[in-house]
Amino acid sequence: MKGRKWWQIPLGIPVLLLLWFAATRDGLVSPFVLAKPELVWRALVNQGTTGALWVDIGMTTYRALSGLLLSAIFGIPLGLFLGYVSQAYRHVALPLDIIRSIPSATLFPVFILAFGVGNASKVAVVFYGCFFLIVMASIYGGRGTNDRPKRIQMVKSLRATQSQVFRYVVLPDALPNILSGMRISASIAFVLVVVTEMFLGANNGLGKRIYDMYLSYRIPDLYADLLLLGLLGYFANAAVERINRYLNPSAHAATSDRVS
Protein backbone atom coordinates (compact mmCIF):
# COMPACT_ATOMS: atom_id res chain seq x y z
CA MET A 1 0.00 0.00 0.00
CA LYS A 2 2.98 2.32 0.61
CA GLY A 3 3.51 4.72 -2.27
CA ARG A 4 0.09 4.10 -3.82
CA LYS A 5 -2.07 6.93 -4.99
CA TRP A 6 -5.56 7.15 -3.50
CA TRP A 7 -7.19 6.03 -6.76
CA GLN A 8 -5.12 2.83 -6.73
CA ILE A 9 -6.67 1.63 -3.46
CA PRO A 10 -9.15 -1.26 -4.07
CA LEU A 11 -12.66 0.07 -3.66
CA GLY A 12 -14.70 -3.01 -4.56
CA ILE A 13 -15.82 -3.95 -1.03
CA PRO A 14 -16.68 -0.38 0.14
CA VAL A 15 -18.61 0.36 -3.06
CA LEU A 16 -20.47 -2.95 -2.86
CA LEU A 17 -21.44 -2.30 0.77
CA LEU A 18 -22.59 1.21 -0.10
CA LEU A 19 -24.78 -0.08 -2.94
CA TRP A 20 -26.16 -2.79 -0.68
CA PHE A 21 -26.99 -0.26 2.03
CA ALA A 22 -28.63 2.12 -0.46
CA ALA A 23 -30.68 -0.64 -2.13
CA THR A 24 -32.26 -1.70 1.16
CA ARG A 25 -33.35 1.79 2.23
CA ASP A 26 -36.95 3.03 1.95
CA GLY A 27 -38.29 -0.22 0.52
CA LEU A 28 -36.36 0.12 -2.73
CA VAL A 29 -35.79 -3.66 -2.65
CA SER A 30 -38.10 -6.04 -0.82
CA PRO A 31 -36.62 -7.38 2.45
CA PHE A 32 -37.69 -10.84 1.28
CA VAL A 33 -35.26 -10.46 -1.62
CA LEU A 34 -32.36 -8.59 -0.04
CA ALA A 35 -31.87 -8.17 3.72
CA LYS A 36 -30.41 -5.02 5.23
CA PRO A 37 -26.64 -5.30 5.87
CA GLU A 38 -26.98 -4.44 9.56
CA LEU A 39 -29.52 -7.27 10.01
CA VAL A 40 -27.23 -9.68 8.18
CA TRP A 41 -24.34 -8.69 10.43
CA ARG A 42 -26.50 -9.21 13.52
CA ALA A 43 -27.57 -12.63 12.23
CA LEU A 44 -23.94 -13.54 11.54
CA VAL A 45 -22.91 -12.62 15.07
CA ASN A 46 -25.83 -14.53 16.60
CA GLN A 47 -25.08 -17.64 14.55
CA GLY A 48 -21.40 -17.42 15.46
CA THR A 49 -22.23 -17.89 19.13
CA THR A 50 -23.76 -21.31 18.47
CA GLY A 51 -21.77 -24.51 18.07
CA ALA A 52 -24.05 -25.77 15.32
CA LEU A 53 -22.72 -23.18 12.85
CA TRP A 54 -19.13 -24.31 13.33
CA VAL A 55 -20.15 -27.94 12.89
CA ASP A 56 -21.84 -27.01 9.60
CA ILE A 57 -18.79 -25.05 8.43
CA GLY A 58 -16.51 -27.94 9.37
CA MET A 59 -18.58 -30.55 7.55
CA THR A 60 -18.89 -28.43 4.39
CA THR A 61 -15.15 -27.78 4.39
CA TYR A 62 -14.37 -31.45 5.02
CA ARG A 63 -16.55 -32.65 2.14
CA ALA A 64 -15.29 -30.03 -0.29
CA LEU A 65 -11.61 -30.52 0.51
CA SER A 66 -11.91 -34.32 0.53
CA GLY A 67 -13.34 -34.34 -2.99
CA LEU A 68 -10.83 -31.72 -4.15
CA LEU A 69 -7.80 -33.56 -2.76
CA LEU A 70 -8.93 -36.90 -4.17
CA SER A 71 -9.45 -35.34 -7.59
CA ALA A 72 -5.95 -33.84 -7.42
CA ILE A 73 -4.34 -37.11 -6.28
CA PHE A 74 -5.81 -39.03 -9.20
CA GLY A 75 -6.23 -36.25 -11.76
CA ILE A 76 -2.77 -34.66 -11.78
CA PRO A 77 -0.76 -37.84 -12.54
CA LEU A 78 -3.28 -38.94 -15.17
CA GLY A 79 -3.33 -35.53 -16.83
CA LEU A 80 0.45 -35.23 -16.87
CA PHE A 81 0.77 -38.68 -18.42
CA LEU A 82 -1.81 -37.94 -21.12
CA GLY A 83 -0.22 -34.58 -21.84
CA TYR A 84 3.33 -35.92 -22.02
CA VAL A 85 2.43 -39.06 -24.00
CA SER A 86 0.38 -37.60 -26.86
CA GLN A 87 -0.28 -41.03 -28.36
CA ALA A 88 -2.12 -42.08 -25.20
CA TYR A 89 -4.25 -38.93 -25.22
CA ARG A 90 -5.46 -39.62 -28.76
CA HIS A 91 -7.06 -42.86 -27.57
CA VAL A 92 -8.99 -41.31 -24.67
CA ALA A 93 -9.71 -37.79 -25.96
CA LEU A 94 -13.22 -38.59 -27.26
CA PRO A 95 -14.55 -40.54 -24.24
CA LEU A 96 -12.90 -38.01 -21.91
CA ASP A 97 -14.67 -35.11 -23.63
CA ILE A 98 -18.00 -36.94 -23.56
CA ILE A 99 -17.81 -37.89 -19.87
CA ARG A 100 -16.62 -34.49 -18.65
CA SER A 101 -19.48 -32.82 -20.54
CA ILE A 102 -22.05 -34.53 -18.29
CA PRO A 103 -22.97 -32.11 -15.46
CA SER A 104 -22.45 -33.38 -11.92
CA ALA A 105 -26.02 -32.48 -10.93
CA THR A 106 -27.49 -34.88 -13.49
CA LEU A 107 -25.60 -37.75 -11.86
CA PHE A 108 -27.06 -37.27 -8.37
CA PRO A 109 -29.25 -40.42 -8.68
CA VAL A 110 -26.20 -42.46 -9.73
CA PHE A 111 -24.13 -41.25 -6.78
CA ILE A 112 -26.99 -41.96 -4.35
CA LEU A 113 -27.42 -45.48 -5.71
CA ALA A 114 -23.67 -46.12 -5.56
CA PHE A 115 -22.76 -44.44 -2.26
CA GLY A 116 -26.02 -43.80 -0.40
CA VAL A 117 -26.99 -40.42 1.09
CA GLY A 118 -24.05 -40.06 3.48
CA ASN A 119 -20.77 -38.20 3.11
CA ALA A 120 -19.46 -40.58 0.44
CA SER A 121 -22.00 -39.48 -2.18
CA LYS A 122 -21.31 -35.80 -1.50
CA VAL A 123 -17.56 -36.27 -1.76
CA ALA A 124 -18.09 -38.27 -4.96
CA VAL A 125 -20.03 -35.40 -6.55
CA VAL A 126 -17.20 -32.97 -5.73
CA PHE A 127 -14.63 -35.46 -7.00
CA TYR A 128 -16.43 -35.88 -10.30
CA GLY A 129 -16.88 -32.14 -10.78
CA CYS A 130 -13.22 -31.29 -10.03
CA PHE A 131 -11.48 -34.35 -11.44
CA PHE A 132 -11.91 -33.55 -15.11
CA LEU A 133 -11.00 -29.89 -14.64
CA ILE A 134 -7.73 -30.90 -13.01
CA VAL A 135 -7.09 -33.58 -15.62
CA MET A 136 -7.52 -31.14 -18.50
CA ALA A 137 -5.36 -28.49 -16.81
CA SER A 138 -2.66 -31.10 -16.22
CA ILE A 139 -2.88 -32.29 -19.83
CA TYR A 140 -2.26 -28.80 -21.18
CA GLY A 141 0.56 -28.38 -18.69
CA GLY A 142 2.06 -31.74 -19.62
CA ARG A 143 2.23 -30.75 -23.27
CA GLY A 144 4.61 -27.93 -22.42
CA THR A 145 5.91 -25.07 -24.53
CA ASN A 146 7.51 -25.11 -27.97
CA ASP A 147 11.03 -24.95 -26.61
CA ARG A 148 10.63 -27.88 -24.22
CA PRO A 149 12.05 -30.53 -26.63
CA LYS A 150 15.31 -28.55 -26.77
CA ARG A 151 15.48 -28.37 -22.99
CA ILE A 152 14.74 -32.08 -22.69
CA GLN A 153 17.49 -32.84 -25.17
CA MET A 154 19.91 -30.67 -23.21
CA VAL A 155 19.06 -32.43 -19.96
CA LYS A 156 19.42 -35.84 -21.60
CA SER A 157 22.84 -34.81 -22.92
CA LEU A 158 23.84 -34.49 -19.27
CA ARG A 159 22.84 -38.17 -18.82
CA ALA A 160 19.61 -37.43 -16.99
CA THR A 161 17.22 -40.32 -16.49
CA GLN A 162 13.62 -40.23 -17.68
CA SER A 163 12.41 -39.57 -14.14
CA GLN A 164 14.84 -36.66 -13.85
CA VAL A 165 13.61 -35.24 -17.16
CA PHE A 166 10.08 -35.39 -15.81
CA ARG A 167 11.08 -33.86 -12.47
CA TYR A 168 13.20 -31.00 -13.74
CA VAL A 169 11.53 -30.16 -17.06
CA VAL A 170 8.01 -31.53 -17.47
CA LEU A 171 6.68 -30.89 -13.95
CA PRO A 172 7.93 -27.28 -13.63
CA ASP A 173 6.40 -26.52 -17.05
CA ALA A 174 3.07 -28.01 -16.01
CA LEU A 175 2.89 -26.46 -12.55
CA PRO A 176 1.25 -23.12 -13.51
CA ASN A 177 -1.51 -24.92 -15.45
CA ILE A 178 -2.08 -27.40 -12.64
CA LEU A 179 -2.37 -24.69 -10.01
CA SER A 180 -4.75 -22.69 -12.21
CA GLY A 181 -6.93 -25.77 -12.49
CA MET A 182 -6.75 -26.24 -8.73
CA ARG A 183 -7.87 -22.65 -8.10
CA ILE A 184 -10.93 -23.07 -10.31
CA SER A 185 -11.66 -26.47 -8.79
CA ALA A 186 -11.44 -25.10 -5.24
CA SER A 187 -14.33 -22.72 -5.90
CA ILE A 188 -16.35 -25.35 -7.74
CA ALA A 189 -15.82 -27.82 -4.90
CA PHE A 190 -17.68 -25.58 -2.45
CA VAL A 191 -20.44 -24.89 -4.98
CA LEU A 192 -21.00 -28.59 -5.56
CA VAL A 193 -20.88 -29.61 -1.92
CA VAL A 194 -23.45 -26.95 -0.98
CA VAL A 195 -25.79 -28.16 -3.71
CA THR A 196 -25.44 -31.75 -2.51
CA GLU A 197 -26.12 -30.69 1.08
CA MET A 198 -29.31 -29.01 -0.11
CA PHE A 199 -30.70 -31.87 -2.15
CA LEU A 200 -28.98 -35.13 -1.13
CA GLY A 201 -30.42 -35.43 2.37
CA ALA A 202 -27.63 -33.95 4.49
CA ASN A 203 -28.05 -33.67 8.26
CA ASN A 204 -25.58 -30.79 8.49
CA GLY A 205 -23.48 -28.42 6.41
CA LEU A 206 -23.86 -24.87 5.12
CA GLY A 207 -25.99 -26.06 2.21
CA LYS A 208 -28.60 -27.57 4.52
CA ARG A 209 -28.44 -24.48 6.74
CA ILE A 210 -29.00 -22.14 3.77
CA TYR A 211 -31.93 -24.23 2.56
CA ASP A 212 -33.49 -24.31 6.04
CA MET A 213 -33.22 -20.52 6.30
CA TYR A 214 -34.91 -20.18 2.92
CA LEU A 215 -37.79 -22.46 3.92
CA SER A 216 -38.36 -20.50 7.16
CA TYR A 217 -37.99 -17.07 5.46
CA ARG A 218 -35.11 -16.10 7.74
CA ILE A 219 -33.62 -13.86 5.07
CA PRO A 220 -30.90 -12.13 7.15
CA ASP A 221 -29.67 -15.54 8.34
CA LEU A 222 -29.77 -16.77 4.75
CA TYR A 223 -27.50 -13.95 3.57
CA ALA A 224 -25.21 -14.42 6.58
CA ASP A 225 -24.66 -18.05 5.58
CA LEU A 226 -24.10 -17.05 1.95
CA LEU A 227 -21.40 -14.63 3.09
CA LEU A 228 -19.75 -17.40 5.09
CA LEU A 229 -19.81 -19.63 2.03
CA GLY A 230 -18.18 -16.89 -0.05
CA LEU A 231 -15.46 -16.49 2.58
CA LEU A 232 -14.76 -20.22 2.55
CA GLY A 233 -14.32 -20.13 -1.22
CA TYR A 234 -12.08 -17.10 -0.92
CA PHE A 235 -9.81 -18.74 1.63
CA ALA A 236 -9.60 -21.91 -0.48
CA ASN A 237 -8.51 -19.82 -3.48
CA ALA A 238 -6.05 -17.88 -1.33
CA ALA A 239 -4.51 -21.12 -0.06
CA VAL A 240 -3.92 -22.39 -3.60
CA GLU A 241 -2.51 -18.99 -4.59
CA ARG A 242 -0.09 -19.12 -1.64
CA ILE A 243 1.06 -22.55 -2.77
CA ASN A 244 1.52 -21.11 -6.26
CA ARG A 245 3.69 -18.29 -4.88
CA TYR A 246 5.81 -20.79 -2.97
CA LEU A 247 6.30 -23.24 -5.84
CA ASN A 248 6.53 -20.69 -8.66
CA PRO A 249 7.90 -17.42 -7.19
CA SER A 250 9.36 -16.12 -10.47
CA ALA A 251 6.00 -16.21 -12.27
CA HIS A 252 4.29 -14.46 -9.36
CA ALA A 253 6.95 -11.74 -9.32
CA ALA A 254 6.49 -11.15 -13.03
CA THR A 255 2.73 -10.89 -12.59
CA SER A 256 3.11 -8.44 -9.71
CA ASP A 257 5.40 -6.25 -11.80
CA ARG A 258 2.87 -6.11 -14.61
CA VAL A 259 0.04 -5.21 -12.23
CA SER A 260 2.01 -2.47 -10.50
Condensed summary:
By secondary structure, the chain is mainly α. It is 78% helix and 0% strand.
List its salient traits.
single chain; 260 residues; mainly alpha; MetI-like fold; 11 helices; 78% helix; 0% strand; elongated; disordered C terminus
Task: Summarize the helices and strands and which ones pair or pack.
Elements: H1 12-23, H2 37-48, H3 51-84, H4 86-100, H5 108-115, H6 119-143, H7 148-157, H8 162-199, H9 206-215, H10 219-247, H11 249-259
Overall number of structural domains: 1
The level 1 CATH classification is Mainly Alpha
The counted number of beta strands is 0
How widely separated are the two ends? 11 Å
The shape is: elongated
User: Beta-strand level of the residues, as a percent range?
Assistant: under 5%
> How much helicity do the residues have?
over 70%
What does this protein structure show overall?
It is a single chain. With 260 residues, the protein is an all-alpha fold. It has one domain: MetI-like (MetI-like fold). Helices cover 78% and strands 0% of the residues. The protein is built from eleven helices and no strands. Helix 6 runs antiparallel to helix 8 and helix 8 runs parallel beside helix 9. It is elongated. The chain starts with 11 loop residues before the first helix and ends with a helix.
